[in-house]
Structure formats: structure tokens, C-alpha cells
Amino acid sequence: MKLLTTIIKPFKLDDVREALSSLGVQGMTVTEVKGFGRQKGHTELYRGAEYAVDFLPKVKLEVGIADDQLESVLEAVVGAAQTGKIGDGKIFVVNLEQAIRIRTGESGNEAL
């Protein structure tokens, strides 16, 4: 099993969710976060004053998947989240040792 942690632009959330749903991914956790990567924020003008926005709004998705779904899920997320501009985000893939569905006690891939 794998745990994907994906950081994307907020307006791409629905596209990514639909892409994952079409592959049969049944659940995900979504968190609104702030951060920056290579773009290091930007400056904005507000009421005539310029100020720096260091942390940009992003969305973090966490999804547990079976090993055999990895490549198709990665392709779907990249395809749905990509704009071709700086700040599109990142995907982190880590091994998931165990998953347990609390309600039924199922574990492993059945819990996903």
C-alpha cells in the first residue's frame, strides 16, 4: 500500500477529485494549507500599498491506495492538477505499512 500526499492549487481540487473517483479511489482527506516552493510567494498591491505574500494558499490531499494503482493514480493526479505554471504542486509517495477500518476492523487493502 502507498500513501500519496499531494499539494495542489485550490482551484484544481475538483478536477483531481473527479480523476481519482474515476479510477475507483474511494476516500481522501483534504486540508487547506499555506506554503511556498520555488516561487517563494509574490507581491500584491492593496489600497496603494505593496506587500509580500510569502505563503500561498494550497490544498493538501492524502490518499491511501493499493500498490497496483500507483502508476494510474499518479498519471491521473498529474494530468488533472497540471497547469504548466510555477506552483502546480508536488506529490509525495510513501510506503503505508498498515491501514485499519475502525468500523469493521478490516485491514490492509480491504480497509482502503
Molecular structure report:
The protein is of the alpha+beta class and 112 residues long. The protein has a single domain, classed as 2-Layer Sandwich (Alpha-Beta Plaits), CATH 3.30.70. It is built from two helices and six strands, in the order E-H-E-E-E-E-H-E. The chain has helices at residues 13-22, 70-81; strands spanning 2-8, 29-35, 42-46, 49-53, 56-65, 89-95. The strands form two sheets. The protein has a four-stranded antiparallel sheet, with helices on one face. Strand 3 and strand 4 form a beta hairpin. The model has no long low-confidence stretch (mean pLDDT 90).
**Average pLDDT number:** 90
Helix fraction bin: 10-25%
Report the radius of gyration as a whole number of Å: 17 Å
Measured by DSSP, the beta-strand proportion falls in: 35-45%
Which blocks of ≥5 consecutive residues have pLDDT under 50?
A: none
List how many beta strands DSSP finds: 6
Instruction: Provide the CATH top-level class.
Output: Alpha Beta
The total domain count is 1
- Tell me, briefly, the overall form: elongated
Number of helices: 2
Major sheet details: 4 strands, antiparallel
Give the end-to-end Cα distance, rounded to a whole number of Å.
9 Å
Order of helices and strands: EHEEEEHE
CATH architecture: 2-Layer Sandwich
